[in-house]
Each structure stands twice: as structure tokens, then as C-alpha cells.
Amino acid sequence: METPAPPDSAPDVRWIDRLAAALAVAGGTLTCLAAALVTVSVVGRWLFNSPIPADYEMVEIAVGVSVFAFLGQTQARSGHIAVDTFTLKLPARVNATIDGVWDLVLAAFLGFFAWGLFAGGMDARTNGLTLIQLPWPVWPVYLLCSVLAGLACVIAVATAILKIIHRLPPAVHTSSEVRE
Amino acid sequence: MSGFSIALIGFGAMLVLIAIRMPIALAMLVVGSAGYAYLNGMHALIYYLRVNAYSQFASYTLSVIPLFILMGALAEGSGMASTLFRAAERRLGRVRGGMPMAVIAACTGFGAICGSSVATAATFGRAALPELRRAKVDPGFGTGTIAAGGTLGILIPPSVILVIYAITAEQNIAKLFQAALIPGLMAATFYCIAIAIIVRRKPELAPPLEITPPQATPRPVWARPLGAIAVIAAIGLWSVGYANTVGALLLGIVGLVFLLLDFAIIPAAAVAIIVVGGIYGEVFTPTEGAAVGAATMLAIGVAQGSLDWKRIKVAFLQTAETTGMIFLILLGAEVFGAFLALTQMPMGLAEMIGDSGLSPYAVVWGMLVAYIVLGAVMDELAMILLTLPVFMPIVLTLDFGMTSEDVAIWFGILVLVVVAIGLAAPPIGLNVFVVNKVAKDVPIISTYKGVIPFVLADLIRLALLTAFPALSLWLVHVLN
Amino acid sequence: QDTVTLKLHHFLPPVSNVHARLLTPWAKSIEDESQGRLKVQIFPAMQLGGKPPQLYDQAANGVVDIVWTLPGNTPGRFPSTEVFELPFVAAAEAKANAPACQEFGETHIAKETADTKILCFWAHDAGLIHTNKEIKTKEDLAGLKLRNPTRLAGEALTALGATSVGMPVPQVPEALAQRAIDGCVIPWEVVPSVKVDELTKFHTAIPGSPTLYTTTFFLAMNKGSYERLSDDQRGVLDKLSGMHFANLAGEMWDTVGKEVGDKIKADGKGVVSSISEEEKARWIEATKPVHIKWVEDVKAKGLDGDALIKTAQELIAKYGKA
Ligand code: NA
Ligand code: NA
Asked: Where is the TRAP C4-dicarboxylate transport system permease DctM subunit domain (chain B) (predicted)?
């Protein structure tokens, strides 16, 4: 029934992929909703002279939240652009460790953003900050983004640890063998 | 220490970090933050960055980027992108160098609806690369062609870079789009000429297709006559003074589709007609066009049955990966830009050029060279946002014998070409990286080699556009 | 003693009137008056990072020393300032609005702005309605899609029967060129920078005071930066801020406004007109509900809206006569 995985090969990191994918699908759905909202607003404005009020602001919020939701997928898929031309000669384990360290640095920034958005959200709540066009409080948006940044941070920490203990290979940006 | 040397140390540190595998976005973020803290204090850095990520991500102007990327991913998922490529392949496949030319043609068509260079490169990296392999096109030449073809996403209007230029330079977006049309078509033509020359010298880079290209969907008999009538009617309307109306333009496009092309590309053409027609028919703004395009792409895909939930999900995952990558770069670029502003380096550089006492054209060339140099090491968007506030007033005071609006539009087109070069040229060419993410087995050096002829074509085009402003301005004058 | 350089951050481009004709000369005057011991270095166009809504917090948290910003960039945070943005409260001339705001600010906004040192609080002159359709009566506004400058001005436009559209200023030229909006409501000073003179034909003013609306501004400073100044540096700054700055600002908006308006009239490309006094009375009547709603809204925040409106009107009358 259970086939034991050969040592040092792909570990079970499906939870990372699943979490990142779930966030990406949520963000993608939100982006689609923003696209639909603009389309409806534009058609309403064109045909019936009645655009959706504050559509600009809602698109901004939807895209802002979506991007936070997307960060985990970029991380899980090693989607950030890096140059590995100069380190091609190094052993894969060294490269994996380097990548893991950079993942940790990124995780630190993401964790900082999660904290910052939480603190900023609490301040916005105290100050009674609202959206520009609508009298809705802005802090729930900050809080949501704080949670999403926190989840992206978790994913980055997980990939970092797996790379440092060599349970995940280094990111491949270009070929490791030159053809010519 | 002078601001200039601090900035140089910053650049140096960033390049070292990039060389040891640090993601480019993170390198900008790390060096930018360190420099900001050094010049302005740790406390200032913390409060500057605290909610800044959200403020940068939640930007109306930048919202077009994920929408264009989504549009590309959906176009690929629904098969629309490969249909577009196949249509071009059917016409060009047997020509020498026809396969790379088909990439350029498909990118040109897609560029008419998508305004992002990276989205175009990513879309055709996935849609065209397997076909190029099948046709035994040299791997580096193929990826180089796609990286260069991707820049047609911004060179052919609509264009994110032009939107940002227009907003920063306070210019009319619609006029800039009109101005970009001829230079954009020139770009596509020049790229094809570059391919023709390369293939003539080294035929083995792109052998002609041996296998029969896939058959086109048969067209009903009435298609050609109807298309011909539509084109004639469009020309007629144009000649009696309807040059400005959408009707003529749209009729022309529809006619051409019926007359020349495959019925297979009708869904893609429908999206193009809605987006282009909507923008030029004053139904929505170019910025809104991105949202309408993505929504239309989704709706047509679902209606056609070519997009099911599984494929949409894949499109979402691709959108997420690319969008997260780009926005982290934008964030890093913003922080790095704030650090540079504190050092006063970009302003100093711009002032040096402005105060140099050179002739107007020499000053413009100086700026373009500065852009090519800056574009080699930093993000093009950040570069524009940082330098335009300084360059723009200088450019507008120079005497070219044109109105200041004409100068601003012409300069915008020149900046656009320089940005396209920066996106494809080493050491940091975003498009090359994006294509390489898809074609991991092709060494990046090969892609850079493959891109060189296209960069040369762009440099020649840049020289022509600088020498002859009419290439950019003629259409604007005709249409207004 | 030491020379101090203060960083002033704002979001407008360096070619804007606010940068070139208000902040730059003001910075120069501070350097001259202090004999070079106090300098103000201006960073336009958000060069030091962030987005306009973050400016106020950048001053509060010491990211920069001084910011030029709009209370309306952070709506809900400074409810008392909104009183001047209500329809038909402000005067037509910035000369009256600016000092009235400053005096009001000295006593009424201290609590809301406790986290910064407000160097000046002021407002611009009258705004006009710029459209491609002639406007003579309220009925002409019906169904017109107009970009509103503030949320309250938006409510006023809705009350007058127009469709109020909210969008960032940089989007205005694009939206006008594409007919996504039919017009916008802004003072003359902003007209050239958003190309409204080229994109619209009719520029409709509201005669005399009170006028349809105004927008308020802050010059806010970090408290620590202010306290760290030596006595004589602070003396120079105090002398050139507050009422002095308010008067400079008022003069700038009135002068530039007149220049722009005169140029458009002289060019003959646009039609500049006013609605009649009788029509204005109808507009005032139609926008009354905006006042009532605002008074109710701020009551929840513990403010006596009616009293604030009365104070604002008295101050504007006081400086309007002068
Ligand atoms: Na395009
Ligand atoms: Na570059």
C-alpha cells in the first residue's frame, strides 16, 4: 500500500503546495471579480449612465489583497527571479542552502509586513480611517492583508527549512549544463 | 560620504547579492532598506515600510498588471494563444525563418489587447515554445525571439509603460497610444527583418517546417466577399472624413479577419475588437480596458467550452506566480528608489545632463543613454518614476521646433523603446528571465545571445525615431 | 550652532504650482531668514517612497520632517476639517478661506492632529465645474458624470442631480479624453496640470461667496523634529508658518487662479461663465441635506456639527471682509 519514499528524495511537502494553491485560487477569483466589477461598471456607465460608485477604490483593494494572496504561490514555486549563472558550478547542496538563507530573509520581510499591517490596521481603527469614496472603515482590509502576509511568511519559512536541511532542491532558474 | 558614492555602493552591493543567487526583488528590498536606514534612521525605515507593501500593491494604475497577466494565462488556458500562433504558423511556417516570425506576428496580435511585456513573454513562452522545438528552431534563438517578441506587449498599444509615462508626465494617454502605433508596427517589422537576416546567414538556426502545419478551420464561401466589402466600406468611410470614428476602424479589422485570416482566430479577434473598439470608441479608458479584456477572455473561453474550472485554476496559479514575482520587484524597486532619492543621485545625474550645455538632440541622446545604463541595473518602471520628474521639465524647455505636447509625446515613445531594450538586454532583462523560467533547459547565456539581433534592431529603430519625430507624431496629428 | 536641514515630502510633481510657487519660495525664505541655519529640502512626487495617504503618518512617525498633504487623503481621521469642505460654506477667494482655516485650526483641530505639529491648515479658492456641456441650471447637471474632488463635494453633486464619480486625480485626463466622465470639479489652479483646458469647453463658476466647495490642506511637521530645533530656528519657522503661510497660500491660489482663468478667456477656446444668483439659491437649497447628514455623522464622533459650521462661516465672513 505505502511505498516508502527513497531517502533524500522529494519529501511530503504537499501542504505547502496546497496552501499556496488555495491562496492563489482565492486571489485569482478576487481578481476576476475585480475585472467583472469594472466591466459591469463600464457597461452601466455607457448604457445607463450609472457606473458602480467607487469602483476604482474597490479594484485597488481587490488587487492589493490578491497580490498578498499570490505571494505564497510565487514562493512555493520558486517563482522569484534570481541569477544562478555564477553559482552553477557549486554543488546542489550549497546552492540549496544559499536559497534557504534568502528564503529566510524574505520570510523576515513578510513577517515584518504582517506585523506592520496589523499595527497599521489597529492605528487606522483608532483613527477612524475610512475609504476615500465610501464611509467604510479601512482596517479590516489591513487585517486581511496582515493574515495573508503571515501565511506567505509561513510558506517562506517552510521552504527555507526544507532547503537548508536538503529536503528540497535549490531553485532552478536556468540550465545547470551548458549545451554547447 | 557623498550621496553619489553611497548610491554607487548600493548598486555594487545589489549586484553582488544578485550574483550570489539572491532574488532580484529581495536584493533591491534589502539594499534599499539598508540604505534608507543608513541615511534616514532605522525608526524612519520601520514606519516607512510598515504598511507600504499594501499601499504599493493596492494601486489603481498598477492593477492593470495582474489583469493583463490573467488575460494572458486565460488566453493560453483556452488555447487562444496557441490558435493565434498556429494561424501565424500556417501563413509563415514554410518561409525561411517563418517559425520565429510567427512568434513575432502572434505577439503583435496579442499586443493589441495586452499591455504588459512580461505577460506577453510568459504567455508565448508557454504557448509557442513547444512548437518552436517541434520545428527544430535553435533553443537560444527561440527563447530570444520570445523575449524580444514579448516587448511588443508594451510597444503595441495598449501599454502599461505608456500609461505610467502619461500619468507621470501629465500627458494624454489616448494620444500616446496613437503615437505608439506606427513605431510599434515598425518594431514588429524590424524584428522580422532581423530574423530574415540571421536565418540567411545561419539557416540551421531556424530550418523551414518539414511537417505540414495544422489545417485551418474551413471558411464558409461568403467569408471572403464579405470581408472584401467590409474593407472597402472601411476605406470609403475613412476617405470621406470618418477617419476618427471607431466604425471605420472596427469595420476594417473585421474585414481583414474575414478576408485574410483564419476563422480559428475569431474568438481572439472578438476580444481585440471589444478592447480596441471600447478604447477608441470612448466606452472605457485604456486602464479599464485591461479589466474588460480579462473578463471578456474569461467569458468567451467559458462560452466556447474551452475553459473549464480545471483550466481556470491553472490560469490562476500561473497568474499568482507571475504577479507575486512582479509586485515584489515593484515593491523592491520602490524601496530602492526611495533610497536613491535620499542620496540625490538620480536628480544629480539628470541635472548634469540638463546643465551640460549640449544641443537639444544631444541632450535627448544623453538621457536615452542614461536610461539604457540605468535600465541595465534597475527595474524600468522604477527608473521612469524616478527620473521623469527631473527629465521632463528639461526636455520641455529644449527647442526642437515642435509644440511642448508634441515633444512630450515623442519623448514618451523614445522612452518606451529604451524600456523595451532594458527588458530584453543583459544583465537584468526581465523578459529574458521570464522566458527562462518556462524554458529551464536553455542556458540564460543562449537566450541573451538570441536576443542580441533584436536589441540591435531596436537600437536602429531608436535612432530612426529620434531623427524623425514625424514617425511618432504623424498619426496623432491626422487623428486629432 | 548646527545647521538643520528639514525634509519636506509631498506628492505633486516639481512643475506644479504648489511646488514651484508656494513651497520652494517658502523654503528659500526660511533659509534666508535664518541666515542658512535652517534649511528645507523638498522631495516632490513621493520620491521618498509611499503613497499620498501615508504622508500624514510619515510626518507623525518621523519618516520625514514635514509633509504637505490633504486631510481628505485620510478620510475619517480629521472630521472637524471637513466643515470647510461642506457645500456652500467656503468663500470664493483663497485669501479668505486660508486664514479662516488657519484660525479655526489653531483652536478646533488640536485634538485630531495631536500626533503632529500643524504648521498651517488652509484651503484653496472656489472650484469650477468643467464640462463639455453648458450649465445654466441644476437641471443641466442631471445625469452628467462628474469627477468629485472630495467625498463631501461628491455628495453635493449627487444632491444636485449629477452622477458623482470618484477617481484619483492622475486618472482624470485619461477619463475625460475617453468620455468616461463628462467633466470634473476643480479650481483653476489645477486645470492646466490635468489638461482640463484642452479636454473640456465650458467652465462654469458659482458667483460670489459662499461657493460650492473647497479642499483643505495641511503642512504638518514631526513633533520631535520641531522640538529639536534651537529657539531661534523655531522662531524663524514659527514666524514663517501659521498665518504667514496661510496668507502666502491664499495669495498663490488666487493669483494663479486668475492667471489661468484669464488665459483661457483670452485664448477663446473655452467658455467661462457663471450661473445666476437665483440659480445659486436653488443649488444651496438642494444641497442642504448634505449639511444635515454631516452634522448627524459627526455627532457620532462627539462633535457639535452645527456649532462648527457656524464658527467656520463667521471666520470666513471675517476674513472675507478684510
Ligand atoms: Na500592448
Ligand atoms: Na533591465
From this structure: 11-471
Per-residue model confidence (pLDDT) at position B258: 67
Q: Which three cell numbers stand for residue C4?
A: 538643520
Cα C157 to Cα C170: distance, rounded to the nearest angstrom: 21
ipTM of this predicted complex? 0.91
Question: Any chain C CB within 8 A of the CB of A53?
Answer: yes
- Can you tell me the mean pLDDT for C240-261? 97
C173-200 burial, b if ≥16 CB within 10 A, otherwise e?
A: bbbbbbbbbbbbbbbbbbbbbbbbbbbb
CA–centroid distance, residue B27 to ligand 2 (Å):
14
Q: Find the mean pLDDT for residues C285-297.
A: 97
Joined grid coordinates for residue B104? 513575432
Give the DSSP letter string of B123-170. Answer: HHHHHHHHHHHHTT--HHHHHHHHHHHHTHHHHSSS-HHHHHHHHHHT
Task: Nearest chain B residue to C60 by CA: give it.
Answer: B47
Tell me how far apart the alpha carbons of residues C253 and C188 are, in angstroms, rounded to a whole number: 8
Residue B469 Cα to chain centre, angstroms: 21
Angle CA A72–A76–A82, to nearest 5: 100
Cα nearest neighbour of A32 on chain B: B295
Q: For residue B157, how far is its CA from the centre of ligand 2 (angstroms)?
A: 21
B touches which chains (3+ CB pairs under 8 A)?
A, C
3-state SS, residue C145: strand
List C-alpha distances in Å: A166 to A72, A75, A106, A110, C214: 20, 17, 19, 23, 63
* Structural contact between residues B442 and B436, judged by C-beta atoms closer than 8 angstroms: yes
Q: What is the pLDDT of residue B139?
A: 92
- Note the pLDDT tens digit of each residue in B363-418: 888 888 888 877 776 667 667 766 776 788 788 878 888 888 899 999 999 999 99
Residues 69-108 of A with CB under 8 A from B: 69-75, 77, 79-87, 95, 98-99, 102, 105-106
Average pLDDT of every residue of chain B: 85
Q: How many CB atoms lie within 10 A of CB A50?
A: 12
Predicted local confidence at residue A7, as pLDDT? 44
Kindly report the CA angle at C134 between C133 and C140, in degrees rounded to 5?
A: 85
pLDDT tens-place string over residues B5-55: 999 999 899 889 988 999 988 999 999 999 999 999 999 999 999 999 999
Question: CB neighbours (10 Å) of residue B405?
Answer: 16
CA angle C232, C233, C236 (to 5 degrees): 85
Q: Kindly state the cell numbers that stand for B21.
A: 543567487
Q: Which of B93-107, B119-133, B299-313, B440-454 has the highest mean pLDDT?
A: B299-313
Q: Give this prediction's pTM.
A: 0.89
C-alpha cell at B18: 544578485
Find chain B residues with C-beta within 8 A of A65's C-beta: 58
